[in-house]
Please model this.
Amino acid sequence: MASTFDALLSRCPVNIDLSRPDAGEFRALAKSLFPDSEELSGAIALHGAKRGNLREMAEAAAMARNCAGGAPVAAAHLAKAMLFSSGAM
Model:
Protein backbone atom coordinates (compact mmCIF):
# COMPACT_ATOMS: atom_id res chain seq x y z
CA MET A 1 0.00 0.00 0.00
CA ALA A 2 1.46 3.33 -1.07
CA SER A 3 1.32 6.27 1.31
CA THR A 4 0.12 9.60 0.07
CA PHE A 5 0.55 12.91 1.76
CA ASP A 6 -2.42 14.68 0.18
CA ALA A 7 -4.03 15.52 3.51
CA LEU A 8 -0.78 16.93 4.84
CA LEU A 9 0.06 18.86 1.67
CA SER A 10 -3.38 20.47 1.58
CA ARG A 11 -2.58 22.10 4.93
CA CYS A 12 0.75 23.58 3.85
CA PRO A 13 0.39 27.28 3.08
CA VAL A 14 1.75 28.51 -0.20
CA ASN A 15 2.77 32.14 -0.17
CA ILE A 16 3.71 33.77 -3.42
CA ASP A 17 4.69 37.41 -3.54
CA LEU A 18 3.86 38.93 -6.90
CA SER A 19 5.24 42.28 -7.90
CA ARG A 20 2.77 45.09 -8.44
CA PRO A 21 1.96 45.80 -12.10
CA ASP A 22 3.93 48.68 -13.57
CA ALA A 23 2.44 51.81 -15.14
CA GLY A 24 2.75 50.38 -18.64
CA GLU A 25 0.63 47.36 -17.73
CA PHE A 26 -2.12 49.60 -16.34
CA ARG A 27 -2.07 51.74 -19.50
CA ALA A 28 -2.08 48.70 -21.80
CA LEU A 29 -5.05 47.11 -20.07
CA ALA A 30 -6.92 50.43 -19.99
CA LYS A 31 -6.33 50.89 -23.72
CA SER A 32 -7.66 47.39 -24.40
CA LEU A 33 -10.75 48.02 -22.27
CA PHE A 34 -11.60 51.37 -23.90
CA PRO A 35 -9.67 51.57 -27.19
CA ASP A 36 -11.85 54.35 -28.65
CA SER A 37 -11.76 56.77 -25.71
CA GLU A 38 -8.64 58.41 -24.32
CA GLU A 39 -10.74 59.93 -21.53
CA LEU A 40 -12.10 56.59 -20.33
CA SER A 41 -8.85 54.66 -20.76
CA GLY A 42 -6.94 57.38 -18.90
CA ALA A 43 -9.43 57.40 -16.05
CA ILE A 44 -9.46 53.65 -15.61
CA ALA A 45 -5.65 53.44 -15.87
CA LEU A 46 -5.36 56.00 -13.09
CA HIS A 47 -7.91 54.06 -11.04
CA GLY A 48 -5.99 50.82 -11.53
CA ALA A 49 -2.66 52.40 -10.61
CA LYS A 50 -4.20 53.94 -7.50
CA ARG A 51 -5.72 50.64 -6.41
CA GLY A 52 -2.83 48.49 -7.67
CA ASN A 53 -5.16 45.95 -9.19
CA LEU A 54 -5.67 44.92 -12.82
CA ARG A 55 -8.69 42.76 -12.04
CA GLU A 56 -10.49 45.70 -10.44
CA MET A 57 -10.01 47.63 -13.68
CA ALA A 58 -11.65 44.85 -15.70
CA GLU A 59 -14.51 44.61 -13.22
CA ALA A 60 -15.08 48.37 -13.32
CA ALA A 61 -15.13 48.33 -17.13
CA ALA A 62 -17.69 45.52 -17.15
CA MET A 63 -19.83 47.36 -14.60
CA ALA A 64 -19.61 50.58 -16.65
CA ARG A 65 -20.85 48.74 -19.73
CA ASN A 66 -23.68 47.30 -17.67
CA CYS A 67 -24.56 50.74 -16.31
CA ALA A 68 -24.61 52.11 -19.87
CA GLY A 69 -27.22 49.52 -20.81
CA GLY A 70 -26.05 49.02 -24.38
CA ALA A 71 -25.35 52.70 -25.02
CA PRO A 72 -21.80 53.97 -25.33
CA VAL A 73 -20.05 54.14 -21.97
CA ALA A 74 -19.83 57.69 -20.64
CA ALA A 75 -17.53 59.10 -17.98
CA ALA A 76 -20.42 59.09 -15.50
CA HIS A 77 -20.95 55.35 -16.03
CA LEU A 78 -17.27 54.65 -15.47
CA ALA A 79 -17.11 56.88 -12.38
CA LYS A 80 -20.03 55.02 -10.84
CA ALA A 81 -18.50 51.64 -11.71
CA MET A 82 -15.12 52.58 -10.22
CA LEU A 83 -16.85 53.73 -7.05
CA PHE A 84 -18.73 50.44 -6.73
CA SER A 85 -15.78 48.26 -7.67
CA SER A 86 -13.46 49.67 -5.03
CA GLY A 87 -15.61 51.30 -2.40
CA ALA A 88 -13.90 54.66 -2.94
CA MET A 89 -12.55 56.69 -5.84
The two ends are 58 Å apart (CA to CA). The chain has one domain: 18-86. DSSP finds five helices and no strands in the chain. The first helix runs from residue 6 to 9.
